[in-house]
Amino acid sequence: MTLPLIVPTRPFAGQRPGTSGLRKKVSVFEQPHYLENFVQSVFDALEGFAGATLVVGGDGRYYNDVAIQTIVRMAAANGFGRILVGQRGILSTPAASCVIRKRGAFGGIILSASHNPGGPDGDFGIKYNAGNGGPAPERITEAIWRRSEAIERYLTLDTADIDLARLGVTSIGAAQVEVFDPVVDHAELMATLFDFAAIGELLRGGAFRMRFDAMHAVTGPYARAIFVERLGAPEASLVDAVPLPDFGGGHPDPNPVYAAALVETMFAPDAPDFGAASDGDGDRNMIVGRNFIVTPSDSLAVLAANAHLVPGYARGLKGIARSMPTSRAADRVAAHLGIACHETPTGWKFFGNLLDAGLATLCGEESAGTGSDHVREKDGVWAVLFWLNVLAARPGESVEAIVRDHWRRFGRDIYSRHDYEGVDVVAANGLIADLRASLGDLPGQRFDRGDGSVARVTLADDFAYTDPVDGSVTTGQGIRVGFDDGSRIVFRLSGTGTEGATLRVYLERFEPDPEKQGVETQEALGPLIAAAERLAGIRGRTGRDRPTVVT
Ligand code: G1P
Ligand code: ZN
After folding, report:
1. Catalytic annotation present for 27
2. Is the CB of 353 under 6 A from ligand 1?
3. Predicted model pTM
4. Which ranges constitute the DSSP H helices of 224-368?
5. Of 102, 155, 164, 458, which sits 20 to 30 A from 546 (CA to CA)?
6. Could you tell me if the CB of 494 is within 6 A of ligand 1?
7. Cα(171)–Cα(247) distance, integer angstroms
8. Mean pLDDT of 16-25
9. φ, ψ for residue 189 (rounded to 5)?
């Protein structure tokens, strides 16, 4: 039997996981021992996995295959008994969550930098998910980081690469490595939640056309297996459905800027009825109707309000959870349904405890993430199927009609996020620090509402969260400024970027009057945008006169 090799190493600074794992440039990960140090730190932070199962896979980006071979050897050397690897190294983030749960694995390692660009000059990422299928809680990610700061050795094996293309089991050291089909388990789970018969009828009928853009990222094989093979949608419904290591040079982030091709198709005269896209690792979703983009905050609210039409959720929702910067649209549905709406910090890891404890069924983030208790990650293909199920159950109603009807019932939370990407780190930190310092002076301050009236600040704080399940406290999660007319501005810095800092400014205003709900979003938010500038001095500090991305 092959004995583990003990390789001496020294710590790398900065291996602290962010919003969603450790993300760095590929060139950083390619340094000798860099990946190994982090992987060993993960294993050292865990206990009791001898002989247990580990799931490994990724979004297919550049370096995915190399990293998988390294991780498989190290997992075997560290004592895992069985290592499940997605064929060709492919495993979407939600499918990884599904497989961890279904196979009773100890945990999983997911290789992805989500929506960040890939390729030799792009980004790479790695994160650990626990046995519930969800991202490791902060207690574990902080332990991994502390370990990485003191690491002196890692364990590996001197064995040949495994064949990632061939399904089946091989042995390395004392471990069994099983290369498995990465789409089957997830597709089967979807079939238990949604009315595949009704959706299939809709897609095969010929009168309804959909277009799914996989952005050359991981969802291509999932979309083919589910939409085409199981539900009978024409092959032409899929675009960019072959995963590429550099995502075809694109930015696999399903928003109106980076999925411009889909938006163009959906706004053309002969547009399909339904458009959707997913991101690098398949956990995000964008939903577009004909001539109509659904904002993710609205999408969560609409799904919650229509969940009774979907078999897997028809028995009722236990609760809804949304990240703090996500609009309050879902809160209105929760109030109507008489269920709780939980407000958590940004990042899916905070939903895990709520889902495990049965306090929430649906979760969502403004950043195109929607999901439920079926797994412990957000799930792009799931969100698309949920919409298709709702459309099948409300025959003749378009995506736009369903959203406008929702606004009439619940009011419209006019919402936008402005991102300033790649700004100077010192300037961005200074902006947030000064806002934080000014919090005490803000309540009572008056801002022009654009129609001659004024709004007063009623809330100014730095969001902190106490987990209702384990009592853990997370602080410094974003500056919130709320006004007496229900408007809100949130300022926070991204925890997933790899270059400079990204300032995110989240803006929202409530419009209950159906007559006024048709307004253009940026125009309607104009006075709030001006207030954000006055509060934070964004232009002067970042040197930018406009955001890089507006969603
Ligand atoms: C971003 C999103 C956040 C999401 C995360 C991972 O994090 O804002 O909602 O959970 O990506 O997909 P951020 O860069 O803002 O820290
Ligand atoms: Zn993602």
Report:
1. no
2. no
3. 0.94
4. 260-266, 296-306, 329-337, 351-356
5. 458
6. yes
7. 32
8. 89
9. -65, -40
